[in-house]
Every structure is written in C-alpha cells, then in structure tokens.
Amino acid sequence: MMDNVIFLILRRMRRPLITLVVIYAVAIIGLLTIPGRLPDGTPWRMDIFHAFYFVSFMSTTIGFGEVPHEFSDAQRIWVTLVIYVSVIGWLYSIGTLLSLLQDKAFKQALTELRFAKHIRKLSEPFYLICGYGETGGTLARDMTDRGRHVVVLDISEDAINMTKMANLRDDVPALAVDARIPQALVEAGLERDQCDGVIAVTNDSWANLKIALTAKLLNPDTPVVCRAESAEVEANMASFGTDHIIDPFETFALHLSTALQAPCLYLLQQWLSGHENEMLSEPIYPPREGQWILCGYGRFGKAVYRRLRQEGIDVVVVEAAPELTGRSEGRFIEGVGTEAVTLEQAHVAHAVGLVAGTDNDVNNLSIIMTAKALNPSLFVILRQNLAENERIAHRVGADIVMYPSSIVANRIRSLLVTPLLSQFIGLASNQDDAWACRVVSRISGVIGERAPAVWEVTIDDEQAHAVYQHIGRGHRPLLHHLLRDPRDRDQRLDCVPLLLAREQSREAMPSPDTPLRHGDQLLFTGRYRARRRMEWTLLNEHALAYAMDDASDHRTLLGRWFERLGLQ
C-alpha cells in the first residue's frame, strides 16, 4: 500500500519537483557567476554554500537580507528575476499537490494504507464480512453487539460510508473494494491467525463463490460461510468444502414445514434466534387442511411449493411470467395476483392460506390486501425484500413475514456466535412437538416479553476459572450450582440450560444434578441479568463456594489467614 502512495506522489509531482530543482540550480549558478564588489572596491564572488543558503530562504520569500555581503546591481537584478520565477514554480508545485490530494486514486490509496495499518494492529479475533448490504449490515450490528470484532469489505463506497453512520458498538475497519480480488482479502486479514471466519453475503452469488474459493485456497483452516441463492452455485461451493452454505429461500421453506408439523418447535426456534429486546413472537398454527395460493413462482416460490406439496397440501400457483420461471405441476394461473379477478380464479374465497412471494414488495402488499378483502380468515405469509418496507410490512396483517436478509443474518449469527444453538435445534428436531412445548413452557417461565439471551459457557480456565479450579482440586460442582443466584443461593437464576456438549456426546435439556467436567460446553437461555450473575459464579471462587454451600471455601483470603492462626 505504501508503494502505491509513493508511486502516485512521484508520478504526479515529478514535473513540479523537476521545475523547482531547475529553478534552484539556475539561480545558484547565476549567483556563482555574477561578480559582486565590496565597499572598498574589492571584487568578490559568492561561494556555493552562501549561494544555496541565499536561494533557499529567498525562493521561499522569507527574506533575511543580502548575505554574506551587499549585492551589486547585477546581482540584485538576477535575484529579482529569480524571485518571480521561484514564486511561480512554488505556485505550480503547490497547485499540483492540492490537485493530487483531491485525486480519487490517491485518496483510495491513502484509505487502503490506513485500512491495512488498522488491520495490522488488530490483536483480537475478528470475522471478515464481504458485502455490507442489508444482510451484512444486520450481521455486523449483531456481531458487534455481542462483543465480536468484524472487518467489512464492499464494492460500493456508499455502503462503506454507512458503516460510519451505523453507530456500531465497535470501531469497524471497512474498505470499498471488490472482495473478489484475492489481494483485497489478504489486505483485510484473511491470512492472519486472528481471522476467525469469512462471511460472504454480497448480493451476487457468483461473487460469494469466488470469495469462498479464495478463502479456502489462501487459508484452508478458516471457516467460510456463504449466501447462495441458486442450486448451481450451492453445489459448486460444496464441492471445495465451504463450511456453511445458506439459501434463505430453502431455509424459510424448512421453517414453514416445521411450523406445519411442530408449531412449538418453530416457536422455540423463533424465540432463541430473536434479536436483543425484540418482542417475543406468538405461537402460529398454519392450516394443514385446505387449499393454499402461492403468488410468485421464482426461487422462493419453488422452495415453498416443494415443502407444501411434501406436506400433502393442495397448492394453486399464480405467476405473471411463466416463460421465465416455468410452470408448476399442479394448478397454475397466469397473473400477478394483485387483481381480484386473478385471485378469484384461484378460488381465494375457499382457500386457507396465501403466500405473497414475488420479488416486488409493493405487489406482495397489494396481493395480501386484495386477498384479505375477499377472504379475511386467510393465513398469510409475506415475502419482504427491502428493509425500508418493514413498517408497512408489519401493518398489513401477515401471520409470517419472510425477510431473506434477516434469515441469513440469524443463521450465520447462530453458527458463528452460538454454534451450540444449531446443535440444540438439531436435537430438538428429532423430538416430538410435545417435548418442544414443554421446553417452550420452561423458557416462558423465566423470561418476560422480550427475546431471551442465548449464551455458551466452556468449562476452562478462561471462561469458568472458578469452576475449572474447583474441579482440579477434586471438588464436584454440579450444573445446578451455576443456576443459583450468587447473591442469594436460595434463589434460582432466570435461565434454563439447553445443551451439554461433552466430548462426542450431546445432551439436550441436561439434568441440574449433572456433574461438571473440564472441557464441558453448556448452552443457556434466559434473562440478560441472569447471564451477568452467572459469570460471577463462573469466575469468582468465593461466589462458587457460596453457591455450593462450602463453608470452608468461601471465606476471604484474610479470613482464611485468621483461621490458620487460630483467631477464628
């Protein structure tokens, strides 16, 4: 980067510098050759040191006077001429320098230099986010809110400027550059040990593919998470070992299938993946009996259609451009769905569900309003494409709002920030809905109306120093000791243990009487204040001893010293 800056300076300032050198050289030569005369009439010539000294302060208009002796008229004429020429030379040089400072390429080089310097100073782990659109912006905020560091690359300078206006909780290094260029990823810290993962969420699936390929070649051990919205790109990514590939349309279709089969499990997923301070969602029960209408048969529509058909649901497809999307196997009506006549052809009055799934938010909202006027009892799913339409999207009365960027961001956040959550959801998916309902009931008993906190704890010397040391001394702390309030051990913290990961085993909803071991990984959910108080028990040996009711161990160091002296 420094080489680029120096090259641009030398290239643009070459002529001005040569001009100044020539002016100075000619001025000095003139002073060396033009003779002077002392007051007594003795002739003298200026030596090269005094000539250079005089030209130096004279050309910069400082003006210390004639040195080392008074000049002759010939010397004064020469100096007068040099003054005007040197001033012109300096104006030319300064003007060129100011022009250089405004040059877009030079400013980009300086920005890249500052960015690279910032990256070199990073000493803590960070995630490299490629693409700062709606998904990348949501993800950057979620990650920084949870104490994770991120570095952002985006091809749009406007998007990068948004990082400075987003009021993130961390200083986020960001650079406007094409993330498909391998050198850009290297300069962003791809090859550094602190890089915990690469997240490719640009709006171009092929660009995400190039980023994933570059990351796997330059740093094979770094996890790579990519957004892909086509089966071709997804298969290509999987072929070279991309760690996680997320298709928002297939992900939502899977969620819809879960809601149809196990409403409590769907609710559990929504609660645990919710944003901080977000209101808890209410249970939903999509109808399984009756006809559904699907408006829009693009990538999203096809994914939803397959899932609904797998559930044995009769689906009528409404599509305005079948020559582009193709036709479904079942009933198919050509049209947008915003007009009552089209929906009436699909027998909306007798339908039980409607999916407004086009790539146009205005059309989707119009479809729902028209359909609701014809059949107010419809169960409605809305596809929201742009974040700016969030307010009106939630006012239209949809039962489920599908926002692709939010789905991708939530999925990536759970994979990278709380990986045990994905494992817990996987185990929960193998249980029946009654089991999920009991878990939901337990969680609702300890949280309020806001989305609960979800956090992980590893029993090691860093995250759980007190527990780790107690186990090392032969004590047997149990899981329920962590669930006690360190201020009053008779009170239970407002949290629920969801998962215990030990070596190769995974146990959902572990028993409170489970003994803890070195290396155990635990997943909790509950109130945020419960998380803060649990950290006290995890890290403070006296707090843990109090929670364990170990009277000999929760004394202060001074108290133990008095006890050894027999003063207690």
Describe the model.
This protein is of the alpha/beta class and 568 residues long. It has four domains: 101 residues, Helix Hairpins (Orthogonal Bundle), CATH 1.10.287; 125 residues, Rossmann fold (3-Layer(aba) Sandwich), CATH 3.40.50; 160 residues, Rossmann fold (3-Layer(aba) Sandwich), CATH 3.40.50.720; 108 residues, Regulator of K+ conductance, C-terminal domain (Alpha-Beta Plaits), CATH 3.30.70. Helices cover 50% and strands 16% of the residues. The protein contains 24 helices and 20 strands. The strands form five sheets. It has a six-stranded parallel beta sheet, sandwiched between helices. Strands 11-10-9-12-13-14 form a six-stranded parallel beta sheet, with helices on both faces. α6 links the parallel β4 and β5. It is elongated. It starts with a helix and ends with a helix.
* Reported CATH architecture of the largest domain: 3-Layer(aba) Sandwich
End-to-end separation: 68 Å
Radius of gyration using CA atoms only = 35 Å
Helix content: 40-55%
Main sheet: strands, sense, barrel: 6 strands, parallel
In order across it, which strands form the biggest sheet?
Answer: 5-4-3-6-7-8
- Count helical runs: 24
What low-confidence regions span 5 or more consecutive residues with pLDDT below 50? none
CATH superfamily of the largest domain: NAD(P)-binding Rossmann-like Domain
